[in-house]
Amino acid sequence: MSLSFEGKVVLVTGAGGGLGREYALAFAKRGASVVVNDLGVDTKGGGKNSAAADKVVEEIRAKGGKAVANYDSVEDGEKLIQSALDAFGKIDVVVNNAGILRDRSFPRTSDLDWDLIQRIHLRGSFQVTRAAWNHMKKQKFGRIIMTASAAGIYGNFGQANYSAAKLGLLGLSNTLAIEGSKYNIFCNTIAPVAGSRLTETVMPPDLVQALKPEFVAPLVLWLCHEQCQENGGLFEVGAGWIGKLRWERSLGRTVRQKNKPMTPEAVRDQWDQICDFTDATRPTSVQESLQSVVNELSRVESDGEVGANPTSAGVNPASAVGHKLPPATFTFNHTNCILYALGVGMSTKDQDHLRFLFEGHEDFSCLPTFGVIPSQAIMLEHGLSSIPGLDIDFTQVLHGEQYLELFKPLPTSGTLHSEGIVADILDKGSGALVLLDVHTYNGDELISFNQFSVFVVGAGGFGGNRTSNKAKVSLPPPKRAPDVVVSDCTTRDQAALYRLSGDWNPLHIDPSFAEIGGFQAPILHGLCSFGFAARHVLKQYADNDPSRFKAIKVRFAKPVMPGQCLQTEMWKEGNRVHIQCKVKETGNVVLAGAYVDLHEAAAAAPEKISQGGGDLQSELVFAEIGRRIQDLGSELVKKVNAVFGWEITKDGKNAAQWTIDLKNGSGALHQGPFSGKVDVTFTVSDEDFMEVVQGKLNPQQAFFSGKLKVRGNIMLSQKLEVILKDYAKL
Ligand code: NAI
Known about the structure:
There is one protein chain. By secondary structure, this protein is of the alpha/beta class. It has five domains: 9-245, NAD(P)-binding Rossmann-like Domain (Rossmann fold, 3-Layer(aba) Sandwich); 247-310, Helix Hairpins (Orthogonal Bundle); 326-459, Thiol Ester Dehydrase, Chain A (Roll), CATH 3.10.129.10; 474-491 and 511-604, Hotdog Thioesterase (Thiol Ester Dehydrase, Chain A, Roll); 618-724, 2-Layer Sandwich (Nonspecific Lipid-transfer Protein, Chain A). Strand 11 and strand 12 form a beta hairpin. Mean pLDDT is 89; it is low at 304-313 and 603-613. Residues 13-14, 16-20, 37-41, 43, 45, 52, 73-74, 97-100, 120, 124, 147, 149, 192-194, 196-199 line the site of 1,4-dihydronicotinamide adenine dinucleotide (NAI).
């Protein structure tokens, strides 16, 4: 679908020439009503002329577009917005583009050179945007562009005044992005490069020609479209290339000791480490920035050696890994199940939620993700502090990831006991990742397995492994638009309600505690959003049947504020549903690399299997493959180490599904849907499959002629030979 601006009112300042003109034409071409503002000055801000704006308006109208001219200076922001209101009744988009140059080497910069530049660029953008703000806020839509410059980002000889104003605009944009987001007002900044009269004095003529403003305008249009959820971004753009910029911060070094003065010598001595960008972090907010400072403060106050590197607090995997935590018990009844269901947003508004909310319901059940609650008791009771070899700063601990697998549907009451063990500790450079495995039992029966991945900021660098075969890893979603998106809003009291299920951390309720943690307000529990996302999947793909739930994995990417709306995007791949959860208001991904594994529906299973029955020739081959795996499984697993999926079609329809697992255990052949990860999937008709295995059809030819379709890691196809050879005699 092409991006239309039909019905939108756009103001472009300084649109009489250069980049602004191009934006105005492009918006008008796509249906916008455009206010073409231009004071008609020379590049230094002298003179005044209405012709520039008029010409562009004429151009737009000649092509059947809608436009009016405005000749005021951007310093009179109200007048520009009034033009939009008078002509078109509203204002949706403001592109702050007008600008001039007064380049001087710094000592020769006069007051006028300085003030004019600040007035036109910075104050002008402020005036225009402020005049538009309340209109945008009321209509709950607004898109704003600030125009910065590489000179501002990097500095440029002779442009002290200009670079100061240009980077000032970025600061302005950063804050507007925060203040506007809840009203759907998004503000982004561009640093363009284009041939115009501003650049013709500094660039060679052929470059001025080549760097056409039309290679910048499409970015501006996208950022201003209602579909675009980008907010607070900074982009360099020119010649058709677009890149995004962000801040990076070195891990830094604390150069102070408790109760001792901080000295410039200590700073000097640690200078290299202060400036070392290895394992740099990328703070994205004042909260994140402040958090590390506050954390350092408490660290220094509690021990604090001079030069103590926050990256290397004592982690000794040798003594920590394998350590068993004292077991914990958890007794519960239907009240806990219902409270949890309410905590993760279930409501009597939805009839099908009743089975989780009403103990008298004939199918009364506990939500599968309640499975984290009994096992987290072990964390909450004993925490990480009891683990030997883990001398870390507990203010730096973040719940990074969670895996939950259920082996039985959860009971709705009883006493469960959990056993926890430190499965591994990974050295992620910027921090240590502690993998804590918790098995939970009902009597002797294993009910669930949880893996808590706890990230300890600044505790990396101890020389440990970066990955572990113990880790349940998160997986990126497929590279296509989600199959389903479900939206669901948390309430203002979501965290207050969720905490009653057992995680009493004041971070989720107490504003002053949250502030110390570096958050503007108490945040929602990650495991609460986790519960939301899981039940979205259960409803969408398993008819709310808890017995269909097998496992879930999520990575907690960003916090959610109570009251925000969650958007769960789902991609179904066999029995695995990949998910990604975003905060609707900000577009921030909060649960990343996540997935839910489901069991096949009991009723559907025989039907699926019978699909493959009978008349498929390929069945014989798979039966033989199955026998070979039984005989030689371990050897094949060593040789091949991959999982192959097969979709066999008959008369153009899916007729059978097989998975040859030569990766796990001693290998296996599965018929029907497969819940694990498949490395490569082949789709081929029954007839062509037989041609291939009998050596009558070359697999490569089959691929190029479209008879054999391949998804996933195509390189692994080569290994198939090991299992497919010798079928010619069949
Ligand atoms: P331009 O000189 O072709 O266009 C700027 C327009 O702004 C002119 O038509 C001018 O009359 C108008 N203008 C100046 N003062 C005004 C005021 N007080 N009120 C209303 N209109 C006013 O320049 P160009 O290259 O198209 O630049 C557009 C924006 O992009 C500027 O903000 C500039 O600083 C920025 N920029 C451009 C770069 C480039 O490579 N062209 C590089 C980096 C930034």
